[in-house]
Amino acid sequence: MERTFSKKIESLGEIFSFAEEFAAKSKLGDDLVFKINFSIEEVFTNMVKYSPEGSEDVAVSLDVEKGRLKIELTDFKVDKFDITKIPEPDIDRANREGDKGGRGLFLVKNLVDDLGYCYENGNSKITMTINLEK
Amino acid sequence: MLNIELKENGDIVLSGRFDASQVEKAQEVLEPLARSVSIDLEKLDYISSAGLGIFIATYKRLSDQGHKMVLKNVSQYVLNVFQLSRLDKVFEIE
């Protein structure tokens, strides 16, 4: 299933509804719904914050194939920025100092089995996969 | 959607979903706090890093002022996020 959403924070409600619709059709449990919503939110909000230029929409795609859940977000007409290359944050320092941000991608990497990035034709695509058969 | 209830005894109850779109709403209630507070999270189904950021900023500010922030009745999914971010070692959780 794929749908596009306006690249603004206010779209999160619609995105969650889309994810829950997909999860219901695919008969995924609550723990996976949480991971899907969380992963999409963290990547989507980064796109809203850090690549406000480009297309006004972000495409969100959800698929289950061969025992793997695949979550993809595509940001159109943006500069290349490979999120998989961002250094790991010092979480303990951030917690001690009360830093508000910097935890999102760290948490996503701990919730999904794989995080990938690809840049093609001016579009950034972030792919997260969760193995369903463990 | 995040719902915020202020109880007569001063406790705050958060319910629903604490995502990035709900940050301003939470800030309106948590930023003016200048006292110790218990926040009941029994009906909070979801929290993202945006919500964590508000909690950590509130905790830090109140701690620096000599106050306490206690999180009560944390659901399994929310607790899991706290544990992954190691905030379960920072926050007082009952």
Task: Give an overview in words.
- The complex is a heterodimer of chains A (134) and B (94).
- Chain A is an alpha+beta fold and 134 residues long.
- Chain A is 37% helix and 28% strand.
- Chain A has a 5-stranded antiparallel β-sheet.
- Chain A is globular, with a radius of gyration of 15 Å.
- The mean pLDDT of chain A is 92.
- With 94 residues, chain B is an alpha/beta fold.
- In chain B, 35% of the residues lie in helices and 28% in strands.
- The longest helix of chain B has 16 residues, at 49-64.
- The mean pLDDT of chain B is 95.
- Chain A binds chain B through residues 9-10, 12-13, 16, 30-31, 34, 37-38, 41-42, 45, 91-92, 95-101, 103-104, 106-107, 110-111, and chain B through 1, 17, 19-21, 46, 48-50, 52-54, 56-57, 59-61, 77, 81, 84-87, 89-90.
Features:
heterodimer, A: 134 residues, alpha+beta, five-stranded antiparallel beta sheet, 4 helices, 5 strands, 37% helix, globular, B: 94 residues, alpha/beta, six-stranded mixed beta sheet, 3 helices, 35% helix
Q: Which sequence of SSEs, written as H and E, runs from N to C of chain A?
A: EHHEEHHEE
Tell me the β content of chain B: 25-35%
Rg of chain B, alpha carbons = 12 Å
The assembly state of the depicted protein chains is heterodimer
How do the strands of the widest beta sheet of chain A line up side by side?
Answer: 1-2-3-5-4
Beta-strand percentage of chain A?
A: 25-35%
Helix content of chain A: 25-40%
Largest interface: A-B, 28 and 25 residues
Q: How many strands in all of chain B?
A: 6
User: What general outline of chain B do the C-alpha atoms trace?
Assistant: globular
Cα-to-Cα separation, first versus last residue of chain A:
24 Å
Biggest sheet details of chain A: 5 strands, antiparallel
Helix/strand/pairing class of chain B, anyone?
Answer: alpha/beta
List unreliable stretches of 5+ residues of chain A: none
Largest sheet of chain B: 6 strands, mixed
- Radius of gyration of chain A equals 15 Å
Low-confidence stretches of chain B: none
Distance between the termini of chain B: 24 Å
Average pLDDT of chain A, to the nearest integer?
92
- Average residue pLDDT of chain B: 95
